[in-house]
Automatic annotation (TrEMBL):
Sequence intervals crossing the membrane: 35-58, 70-88, 108-130, 150-172, 212-235, 247-269, 281-299
PROSITE patterns linked: G_PROTEIN_RECEP_F1_2
G-protein coupled receptors family 1 profile domain segment(s): 51-296
The keyword Transmembrane helix is annotated on this UniProt entry: yes
Alphabetical UniProt keywords: Cell membrane, Membrane, Olfaction, Sensory transduction, Transducer, Transmembrane, Transmembrane helix
Protein name, per record: G-protein coupled receptors family 1 profile domain-containing protein
SUPFAM superfamilies: Family A G protein-coupled receptor-like
Organism: Monopterus albus (Swamp eel)
Topological relation to the membrane, as annotated: Multi-pass membrane protein
Coiled coil segments of this chain: none
The keyword Transmembrane appears for this protein: yes
């Protein structure tokens, strides 16, 4: 590309040969306050990666956590780690540079994985709800139904469902012509922000994208709600002690689900009213993966005990090394 073409693209004017990269505008309107957000996002990202890594480590090394519920939790933690990595590091780099750019293929890869992983996490939350339903409503048949094969099928189904709900709209948007301007008014390759830059009619893109988003949210939401309605009916027939025990096994998952879907609804409504607003989207992208390990660490007694056992093992190992 010639220098004049590159210069015109940077300034947001049309480029005759089609754009080869996008400029991510990010939250440049914040001015000096960007550094405050930089520090908050950096700390949040470190805590998210550390907390979810801890959960994966504990579920793999502690025999008492070798159960279907913690298998699903470990997979959810992995998805959350990759989910935040698709956007947050690029945003952090953008805060430290005058102009943040991303190649067109890189933008669409980021777009695909951001949405796909978000839907996959909801698929895993749905599998966890089904796991709780079986454990509470059919305890005698739980181990015979929730086999390792079924666990792997549920995880594979979550990933496949995420791909199914993401790939069609992503491919349609990818094949649109982009001849300029090339400034994405977002911190990452947000689909609606990129779609506004297409030099063609995007009504089909918008319809397919919205339809698949509704399929993803409603399908997982209805299945999770159905699981908890059936759990509620079963729990209502139990004694008080059994109710408390059943509630204790669900409270962490129910809290995560409530926060996730409430935040998603808030972002959707805010985005409809303020299409150029990015703060709510950034908050949503970072908040849910950040809260998941915090909630499970604080609300789950088995996980708390596993953390204590692990710390004791490390301390005893250090003591033996010092004695030697």
């Amino acid at each position: 590309m010639s220098t004049s073409h590159r210069s015109s693209s940077v300034n947001g004017t049309r480029e005759p040969d089609g754009v080869t990269f996008f400029i991510l505008q990010g939250l440049s309107s914040l001015g000096d306050r960007q550094m405050i957000l930089f520090v908050i996002l950096l700390l949040g990202y470190i805590i998210t990666q550390g907390g979810n890594s801890m959960i994966i480590f504990l579920t793999q090394t502690d025999p008492k956590l070798h159960s279907p519920m913690y298998f699903f939790l470990a997979n959810l933690s992995f998805v959350d780690m990759v989910y935040t990595t698709t956007t947050i590091p690029k945003m952090l780099v953008g805060f430290l540079s005058d102009v943040s750019t991303i190649s067109v293929p890189g933008c669409f890869l980021q777009m695909f994985f951001f949405i796909q992983l978000g839907i996959t996490s909801r698929g895993i939350l749905t599998a966890m709800a089904y796991d709780r339903y079986l454990a509470i409503c059919h305890p005698l048949h739980y181990t015979s139904i929730m086999t390792q094969h079924i666990q792997l099928l549920l995880i594979a189904g979550a990933w496949a469902f995420g791909t199914f709900c993401t790939l069609p709209a992503n491919l349609i948007t990818w094949h649109q012509p982009y001849c300029g301007p090339n400034v994405v008014k977002h911190g990452w390759g947000d689909p609606s922000s990129v779609r506004r830059l297409a030099c063609a009619d995007t009504s089909v893109d918008n319809t397919v994208s919205l339809s698949l988003a509704l399929v993803a949210l409603l399908t997982t939401g209805v299945l999770i709600l159905t699981s908890y309605v059936l759990i509620g009916i079963s729990v209502s027939r139990m004694s008080v002690a059994q109710r408390l025990k059943a509630f204790g096994t669900c409270v962490s998952h129910l809290t995560v689900v409530s926060i996730s879907y409430t935040a998603a609804s808030f972002v959707y409504i805010s985005y409809r009213k303020y299409p150029q607003g990015q703060g709510q989207a950034v908050l949503y992208a970072a908040l849910t993966p950040f809260l998941n390990p915090v909630i499970y660490s604080l609300r789950n007694k088995e996980l708390q005990e596993s953390i204590r056992r692990t710390l004791v093992r490390f301390r005893s190992s250090d003591s033996r090394l010092q004695v030697r």
